[in-house]
Design brief:
There is one protein chain. This protein has 12 helices and 13 strands. With about 400 residues, it is an alpha/beta fold. A 7-stranded mixed β-sheet has the order 3-2-1-4-5-10-11, with helices on both faces. Strands 7-8-6-9 form a 4-stranded parallel β-sheet, sandwiched between helices. The protein has a two-stranded antiparallel sheet with strand order 12-13.
């Protein structure tokens, strides 16, 4: 009797508008390469520990449903933020995971996620080698933050950047119409704890008919609030409407987050990350008190990662590509790796997938290079624009029903 070949896939961390395109890539490639069952963990590794999983063939019956999955935002299987303990601290957790994998006849374990998810792949592949298990463990990159090491960029980033740039243009237009004989300052807060890739994307709104934001502040550089105030005052001598983009994670020279100046929040997740919110609101209030003009703050918040109606075609295709590449790598014997995107050409833009040792990726962050930020630290350079521009190209419109997007949902 031929041995069954099964594969399992999970999604972890903050979702993106294209994470399900990677899931579709995993499913389609696994079927093409002869895997019998493709299981989906419900809510990632945390759900797997509770033996919560689903046979994906019970959810995806047609090519049309696979296409619909690719255009559906958020994590179709559900996500989690669960930190696996160190192997020596709690080996029972690993024993349980591998008991479940053995019971399901799993040959390959695919995890779609960001930095913390790659830590999970690293630990599971290490345990498998130590204990002599045969399962292969592959990571699929996913994060709008674009902060994974060794890959040119991450799926999810291009679509988030496209949404941010388009929304920034619209905010700028809105602000301009309300400044007859009065001044107004608008501060836009963008996601980004330590890496400012998304905030820098606001500069893409600088086009023929739009000046783009006037100031951009990334978390890679210390934020000087006095210098900031002087910059704004100088700009107000030249124009009535000022739009400023700030990363949620900008910090003062002493290491405090700007959002903590207003009290902030004490919530910390399983990976020790503080919840950041209120940076733009604090700065708007500060400028209002110091300058006396109208101010407003805008948080794009979760809209940045779930706006599938603004997904980039390049991003959708690359997300699918890396999902398929993970299955191929696992099927050919790779383990303890993450699929990375290599930029083959800028003009015309071309990319390819390869794999890289997850030990050199997990728990490392890729930050915006210093020379991609101007000398004053309040805007980005053309190198940044040239890097990001190819990633937002093309559209992938959702299927519309009665004027609204249709999504594939778990049954």
């Amino acid at each position: 009797m031929t041995k069954k070949r099964n594969i399992i896939v999970g999604q972890s961390g903050g979702p993106t508008s294209v994470i399900n395109s990677s899931l579709a890539g995993v499913y389609k490639t696994a079927k093409e390469r002869g895997f019998d069952k493709v299981y989906g963990m419900l809510h990632g590794i945390q759900g797997l520990l509770d033996e919560q999983y689903v046979d994906l063939s019970s959810q995806i019956h047609t090519d049309m449903e696979l296409e619909l999955l690719m255009r559906t935002p958020s994590a179709f299987l559900g996500s989690c933020r669960y930190k696996l303990p160190e192997i020596h601290d709690n080996p029972a957790v690993y024993e349980k995971i591998f008991m479940i994998l053995d019971k399901l006849g799993i040959e390959a374990f695919i995890y779609i996620g960001g930095n913390d998810s790659m830590d999970t792949i690293k630990k599971l592949s290490d345990y498998a080698i130590i204990k002599g298990h045969n399962q292969k463990f592959l990571g699929v990159p996913k994060t709008i933050d674009n902060d994974l090491a060794q890959t040119d960029h991450t799926p999810g980033f291009g679509s988030a950047a496209k949404y941010i740039a388009a929304s920034t243009k619209e905010v700028i237009r809105d602000a301009l119409c309300l400044t007859y004989n009065k001044e107004m300052i608008t501060i836009i807060e963008i996601m980004g704890r330590n890496a400012g890739w998304l905030t820098g994307a606001t500069a893409l709104s600088r086009t023929e008919e739009c000046d783009g934001p006037d100031l951009i502040y990334l978390p890679e550089l210390p934020f000087d609030i006095d210098k900031f105030l002087n910059n704004v005052k100088e700009l107000l001598k030249k124009k009535h409407s000022i739009v400023i983009a700030v990363s949620e994670g900008i910090k003062l020279m002493d290491g405090r987050y700007v959002c903590e100046l207003s009290g902030g929040t004490n919530y910390v997740d399983a990976f020790g990350h503080k919840q950041l919110q209120g940076t733009a609101a604090y700065l708007a209030s500060f400028l209002s008190a110091e300058i006396g003009c109208k101010t407003r703050s805008i948080e794009f918040s979760t809209l940045q990662r779930c706006a599938s109606h603004m997904a980039s075609r390049v991003d959708i295709n690359e997300a699918f590509m890396v999902g398929g590449a993970a299955v191929k790598a696992a099927d050919e014997g790779d383990t303890g790796k993450m699929v990375v995107i290599d930029r083959v050409s800028d003009d015309p833009y071309m990319s390819a997938a390869s794999t890289y040792d997850v030990h050199l990726i997990a728990n490392n962050e890729k930050l915006v290079p210093r020379n991609w930020v101007n000398q004053e630290g309040n805007y980005i350079t053309d190198d940044f624009i040239n890097y990001i521009e190819p990633l937002i190209q093309g559209d992938c419109q959702p299927f519309m029903v009665n004027g609204l997007p249709q999504h594939l949902v778990l049954k």
